[in-house]
Structure formats: structure tokens, C-alpha cells
Design brief:
One of its GO terms (molecular function) is unfolded protein binding. This is DnaJ homolog subfamily B member 11. Keywords: Signal. It comes from Ictalurus punctatus. There is one protein chain. Among the domains are: about 25-85, Helix Hairpins; about 130-240, Urease metallochaperone UreE, N-terminal domain (HSP40/DNAj peptide-binding domain, Sandwich); about 250-325, Urease metallochaperone UreE, N-terminal domain (HSP40/DNAj peptide-binding domain), CATH 2.60.260. It has a four-stranded mixed β-sheet. Strands 1-5-4 form a three-stranded mixed β-sheet. A two-stranded antiparallel sheet has the order 2-3. The chain has about 400 residues and is an alpha/beta fold. It has helices at about 5-15, 15-25, 35-50, 60-75, 75-95, 95-100, 105-115, 140-145, 265-270, 330-340, 380-385; strands at about 130-135, 145-180, 180-210, 220, 235-240, 250, 255-260, 270-275, 280-285, 295-300, 315-320, 350, 370.
């Protein structure tokens, strides 16, 4: 007897030990692990092996394995049943929990189960349809993280007394129709399989909205999709749909927002607090003049990086200056403004187009009126002056 056959024989003789350790050890746990430990281990490993993050060979299979192990062990009834009946019980019990090919370890024990993912015939395993659901998520939830629970109602395959026809296919057979005469006919040939029925069941699912998750991120639940009569279940996939926020706009890990300030604040300076997504306050202050469209960059106040939550993007604040309307300055007020900012420039020669070199007095606001195509050309200030505040 070769070593491979000996290993298989040991697995059959002690099935609960082999599969039990594999289920728990796939999450790096012992069979005495608590539900909280199972959840924590799954979240850590799922983040490590998620196909969107890990492109190494085998990462996707590893992710499916730990996802399905978590789905079994996090359900109290399934875990108790699994711990009590082991591998041989799973094989005999059939049904949706461990039969029908949706069990992730079928590829390891397929020959003992009489099928599974690794079919020796090379035939493709039948599979139910995938179910994709859009999951609206707020920017606040993506910033601080959240857990969302769902009740999933779907058809589950359960054992039923008797047998049924399965794996039906057409075969050519020869029939005798007389002495020395034969006829080729097509006949349907079927196997006898254990009988089953579909029963609607509700299952509690939990989606973890991790810090920094991005829009269109796919969160899969292997085996929770549509069932197949003679194959494995499809997958259930939640697709993160980041909702539009009234204050912040996200680009990658950076956040953008606009703040309108009065003309007085723009000229004399300001100091106030901005309420962030998690409620903490960000102080915005400036003593110098702030021009319309000026941008203030605040490092480490953006979104947490999904791959490394210790890193954060930047917060970019663009200032809009609100000019007073329907107000006319007195002669004394006008003279005071001219005294501060210099003579009027509108009486000078009007310039056309965008200059190639920086104009004198541009930074101080001492420029003549300039006419240009705003759709195709940058403004004089935009070309020669940066908008980022220093």
C-alpha cells in the first residue's frame, strides 16, 4: 500500500479529526474557539486573502475556503451539527450544508465523496447562479467602519426519502430488428441519486464595512447564491456603492470640500472648526488674505487607506469668497479701500489673452482688466499663481 492510499484510508477511518481540524485550522483556530474569536480570525484573514487585495496564486481559493469555513462555524446550529457528525456524517447527511459540491473541502475529499470539484472525468461542475446586490454605504460608514446585518431568504436543498434520476445524458445504442439487421437509436441514460427537496430558509449574514473600503468593492459570500439541483450553489456578492455626501467628495484616499467665507474674513483672516465625518473637529485658520478658489491642504485628514489603516489621505478645502450684494461704499470707504490696495486698474489699458510671463503686481492684485477665453485658456492668476495656500 502506497503512502497516498494510506493517508486516504486514515482520513476515512478518522474523518472527524481530519476535516474538523481543517475547518478550524483554516481560520487558525482550535475547536474550542469562541464565536468572537471566529469572527475576528475571519475578518483578519479575509482582508489578507481578498481577491481585490491579494493577487498571488491561490489567494482566491484560500479566501473561498476561509469564507465557507466561517459561514459554517459562525452558525451555532451548523457548528454543533458539524462537530457531532464529522466528515462521514457530512457525506451521508447530504443536503445543503456540506453536500452538493458547495463545501470548500470537496476538492480535497472529492474522490471519497464520489464527486466534488475535482472530477476525474474532467466534466465541469454544475453551478447555481450568482446573486449580486448593491449595498448603499455612507461616507461616514466607510470612514469609521460598520457592521451591517442581513436576513437572507433562499432555497436550501434538503435530503428527502427515495431516489431520483440525475446526470441524464443521451447515448447511442444498438438494437436488433431482425436476423442480421441492427438499428442505432438514441436513449436517455440516467443515474440514481439521493432524493432532495428545496426548502426556504432565513440566514443571518453580516457584512463588515471596513475602514477605507472603496466604491464598487465586491464582498462575496461563497455558496449563498442560487442553488443547483445537481451541483454547487452560486455566490452571493454585495457590491459597495458609496453614496454622495453633502459636504465631502472622495477621490481615492483624499477628501475635498468647499467653504464659503465672507469678504471680511477673506481680507482680515479667519478661524473656525470644521466637523469631520466621525465628529472630530478640524481647525481652519488663516491670518493672510484668502482669494476665491484658494485651496488649503490638511495632511492626514482624508480617508483611511484600505490596505493600511495607519495611513490617511489629505483633506483639501477650497474657499469661496462671498461678496456683499446691493451695498454701495461711501466716498470715505472707497478711499480707504484704495488706500489699502492701491489705485484702480480699470482705467489702464485693457489686455487681451493670457500673458506668457508673470505680470508685475499680480500677487498683490494690481493688474489691469484682462479678457480671455475661460473654456480654453487658464486665467492670468491661474497660470502664474498657485492656488494652494501656504
Amino acid at each position: 500500500m502506497g503512502p497516498l492510499k494510506l493517508v486516504v484510508l486514515l482520513a476515512i477511518m478518522s474523518p472527524h479529526c481530519i476535516l474538523g481540524e481543517t475547518l478550524y485550522e483554516s481560520l487558525g483556530l482550535s475547536s474550542t474557539a469562541t464565536l468572537d474569536q471566529i469572527k475576528k480570525a475571519y475578518r483578519t484573514m479575509a482582508k489578507q486573502y481578498h481577491p481585490d487585495k491579494n493577487k498571488e496564486p491561490g489567494a482566491e481559493n484560500k479566501f473561498r475556503l476561509i469564507s465557507t469555513a466561517y459561514e459554517r462555524l459562525s452558525d451555532e446550529e451548523k457548528r454543533r451539527r458539524y462537530d457531532s457528525i464529522g466528515l462521514e456524517g457530512c457525506k451521508k447527511d447530504g443536503g445543503d450544508d456540506f453536500g452538493g459540491g458547495d463545501h470548500p473541502f470537496a476538492s480535497f475529499f472529492g474522490s471519497m465523496f464520489g464527486g466534488g470539484h475535482g472530477s476525474e472525468s474532467g466534466q465541469q461542475v454544475n453551478r447555481g447562479g450568482d446573486v449580486t446586490i448593491d449595498l448603499p454605504v455612507t461616507l461616514e460608514e466607510l470612514f469609521v467602519g460598520e457592521f451591517i446585518e442581513f436576513t437572507r431568504s433562499r432555497s436550501v436543498k434538503k435530503p428527502k426519502p427515495g431516489t431520483r434520476k440525475c446526470n441524464c445524458h443521451m447515448e447511442m445504442k444498438t438494437r436488433s430488428i431482425g436476423p442480421g439487421r441492427f438499428q442505432m437509436v438514441q436513449e436517455q441514460v440516467c443515474s440514481e441519486c439521493p432524493n432532495y427537496e428545496f426548502v426556504n430558509e432565513d440566514r443571518q449574514l453580516e457584512v463588515e464595512i471596513e475602514l477605507g473600503m472603496r466604491d464598487k468593492y465586491s464582498y462575496p459570500f461563497p455558496g449563498e447564491g442560487e442553488p443547483h439541483a445537481d451541483g454547487e450553489n452560486g455566490d452571493l456578492k454585495f457590491v459597495i456603492r458609496q453614496q454622495v455626501h453633502s459636504i465631502f467628495h472622495r477621490r481615492g484616499d483624499d477628501l475635498y470640500t468647499n467653504v464659503s467665507i465672507s469678504l471680511v474674513d477673506a481680507l482680515t483672516g479667519f478661524s473656525f472648526e470644521l466637523i469631520h465625518l466621525d465628529g472630530h473637529k478640524v481647525k481652519l485658520s488663516r491670518e493672510k488674505v484668502t482669494w476665491p478658489g484658494a485651496i488649503l491642504r490638511i495632511a492626514n485628514e482624508g480617508m483611511p487607506n484600505y490596505e493600511n489603516n495607519d495611513k490617511k489621505g489629505s483633506l483639501y478645502v477650497t474657499f469661496d469668497v462671498v461678496f456683499p450684494r446691493d451695498k454701495q461704499l461711501t466716498t470715505a470707504e472707497s478711499e480707504a479701500v484704495v488706500g489699502i490696495f492701491g489705485d484702480k486698474q480699470s482705467a489702464s489699458t485693457v489686455a487681451y489673452g493670457v500673458p506668457m510671463v508673470r505680470e508685475k503686481g499680480l500677487a498683490e492684485g494690481h493688474t489691469a482688466p484682462r479678457v480671455y477665453n475661460g473654456f480654453t485658456s487658464p486665467s492670468s492668476a491661474g497660470k502664474h499663481l498657485g492656488n494652494t495656500l501656504r
